[in-house]
Amino acid sequence: MDNLKLNVSLLRQRVPNLTSAAKSVGLRPATVSNLCTGKIPVGRAEVRTIAALASLAKCSLDELILRGESVEMIETGIKPLDLFAPLAKGGTVGLVARPGMGQLVLLGELFHRFKQDGYATILLKPNGEYPELKDMLDDVQHVTHSIDDTYNLIMEMGTGAEIMFAADREHVLTGEIYELQERLQQEGIHNVTTFLVDLKGAVVDDDMPYGPLETLWVFDADLAARHKFPAVHPLHSTSSVLEGSHLDQLHHIVQQRAQKLLRRYRELRSLVNVRGVQGIPAAELTAYERGERLEAYLTQPFVIAEPYTGIKGVRVALHDTLNDVQAILNGSMDHQAVESLTWIGQLQA
Questions:
Q1: CA separation (Å) from 327 to 235, 262, 297, 333?
Q2: E strands within the chain?
Q3: Alpha-carbon distance 334 to 219, whole Å?
Q4: How far apart are CA 151 and CA 12, in angstroms?
Q5: Main site of residence (predicted)?
Q6: What is the per-residue pLDDT across 261-311, written as a single tens digit (0 to 9) for each?
Q7: CATH architecture of structural domain 92-213
Q8: Which of these CATH numbers, 2.40.30.60, 1.10.1140.10, 3.40.5.10, 3.40.50.300, describes 249-341?
Q9: How far apart are CA 237 and CA 243, in angstroms?
């Protein structure tokens, strides 16, 4: 049962407006979204839910449910992404944020890293003027102005190129992104990882703003307000890479323990904001302090932000992130000041 996953690509093609379609047959859009990203394993879903999705997509259960399909992770070197919501290679990732939460800085950093790693980077320029895009254009190799331009460019690159492609939600609402993905798949092109953003920020208010996704990165207003960047929500962000046997066992264990601690830390932090640290039960003080240290460690300086922060950008390998997070969870960093764990890369021995 661990090897089952939804055919997200098929759902995208067959049911572009999945939010409305799901509601029309009595399904909660959040449930469908969690099934697509793997937050809810397919093996634990209700039979009626899977049957309803198959009916909406006008396909058989065998077509909707993929068995034994591996999901390859692209390691980004960005701690909270790799730990909580790994990037699924060849899939579609949606960034859910309001303006000012740092989504374009994160995307710019990713494109900077991808270009260094040999990926081709493409941006489908949105309609209108968005000065905030200027900072990331240096790391975009190709800027296209229409879906057809994008299709032709990708076809020229062929099946040998690994491609990172970003587009605004306006192209999702028109259905053009899904049409592009379907055309590419029909041509045997499966090497495009797609990033969807919403420069207007309306995406935050929708149940399933981008339709079915393999990876979902939700930005947190509280983290952004406290300048804890990248402000990716550790509990609401998720990925199909996390489903079943696709994830290394150590990664799974550390990720689950980290989320459990941060969930409790966030609850305790609400008490601290009202009553102060003295308002926390003595038995919970350790959880609060370790959660505070873990939250600080998950901040990370970016290369593209160096001119503004004066801090050298760093990349942290996943195995180092897992070892560091384990050290914090196990209390090895209890003697360290929170400030010493903020805006660093790997922990220093």
A1: 20, 15, 11, 6
A2: 4-6, 65-67, 73-74, 87-88, 92-96, 120-124, 142-144, 163-168, 192-197, 215-218, 238-239
A3: 28
A4: 18
A5: membrane
A6: 999 999 999 999 999 998 899 999 999 999 999 999 999 999 999 999 999
A7: 3-Layer(aba) Sandwich (3.40)
A8: 1.10.1140.10
A9: 13
- Return the closest-CA partner of residue 325 out of 254, 250, 223, 241: 254
- pLDDT tens string 58-69: 999 989 988 766
Mutual angle of helices 249-275 and 285-297, in 10-degree steps: 110
3-state DSSP assignment of residue 283: helix
**Environment class of 2 (CB within 10 Å of its CB; exposed 0-12, middle 13-18, buried 19+):** exposed
The ranges assigned to domains in the chain are 4-67, 92-213, 249-341
What would the two tokens of residue 153 be?
């460019």
DSSP 126: P
- The model's pLDDT over 153-170, given as tens digits with 9 standing for 90+, comes to 999 998 889 999 999 999
Kindly compute the dihedral angle of the four CA atoms of residues 163, 93, 133, 146, in this order, to the nearest 10 degrees. Answer: 60
